Amino acid sequence: MSKTRESSALAAQIMRRSDELGAVSEERGCLTRTFHSPAMQRANKLVASWMGGAGMDVRVDAAFNLIGRVPSVRRGAKCVLIGSHLDTVRNAGKYDGPLGVLLGIAVAERLRGTALPFHLEVVGFSDEEGVRYQTTYLGSRGMCGLLRAADLARVEEKGIAKARRPVREMLAYLEAHIEQGPVLEVSNRPVGVVTAIAGQTRIRASLTGCAGHAGTTPMHLRQDALAGAAEIVLAAEKMGVLATVGQLEVDRGASNVIPGLVRFTLDVRDVKDAKRRAACAKLQRLAVAVARKRKLKLRWETVQETATASMDPALTKLLLKAAGSRVPRMPSGAGHDAAVFSACCPSAMLFVRCKGGVSHHPGESVKESDVAVAVDVLVRAVLELAKRHG
Ligand code: GLV
Ligand code: MN
Ligand code: MN
Questions:
Q1: Domain, as residue range, for 274
Q2: Ligand 1 atom closest to 96 (CA)
Q3: 129 lines ligand 1 (CB under 6 A)
Q4: Distance 200 CA to ligand 1 centre (A)
Q5: What is the CATH number of the domain that holds 283?
Q6: 208 and 119 in one domain?
Q7: 194 and 212 together in one domain
Q8: Which of 78, 191, 238, 299 is least buried, going by the fewest C-beta atoms within 10 A?
Q9: Which residues does the chain have with pLDDT short of 70?
Q10: Does 173 lie in the same domain as 110?
């Protein structure tokens, strides 16, 4: 089979596998897979069978990352990793994360029998979305030895730090992912190359007021926690950065009870770290003022901060060459495991066009022909790396 025909067949297989994996969920009627859930374990098992079928040695590490390895014949060889994540948001689409893992397996299949001067590893990370603990990248940070005591204090799975591997064994990290935005579609290109991944801050907050009777408490005597939270939500919207309150819960809410306790999350992003930090500080000051004015008690906890991560210039150049001319370069507003790896080894990312830029939504969609292009680009990139390190 010609290489392009082979990539087309592999792309068709990726589409089928995406459908199959997209049905592995912890919720009925929609796709949700969170860190270390039974659904994640089932997903790992399914993907492990595909890795095994591609001739890889498969294991799950202490952070529940699934790792398929094609060992190099060379002694003392380092490792090239192709990874992305297998966890999802709630009510997710089926390509955010899994597509990159399935593309990695396709690369291993295409290169089966090719002697490489490095081990080739395909990794399905266990937690990129951070849904379960609101702290992201538990899998990749576990592998890179970047978990902090505060992360371990927050999780039940205390052993995840044992996934740490020596950074010196990592030669390069490549990740493919759906774009999750409209740039490629607008420019009519199947793939693009990522320049940097925007930093993000995740905050967990609560406001405590006083629950009371909705029919008898005069408006001016209330300590309504939700009304206070609403002021903060609307202020976040005007902060001039990407700011999202994605979870907001009224504790024991009822239609005839004044909200006494509200918990909410805040996700703040910008490619400029200083701008993101300034927005977070301003929002916190505003929240303090809202709480004082309304006689509420504020709790404000920064659960995670990730700085903007630049992709490695040389590896990005290699990926651009593998992708051919006229390939758009763009920053990523979404977080990716590549942001973690960029602190440890040269890292680069390929984006695959997705329909309407839709993501974190069941409507995520990619074209099989674009997936075939991505297989070809990644294979060319790995072969070029082999030539340079041969
Ligand atoms: C992951 O998708 C994130 O950017 O939140
Ligand atoms: Mn995501
Ligand atoms: Mn993702």
A1: 200-306
A2: 2
A3: yes
A4: 9
A5: 3.30.70.360
A6: no
A7: no
A8: 238
A9: 1-3
A10: yes
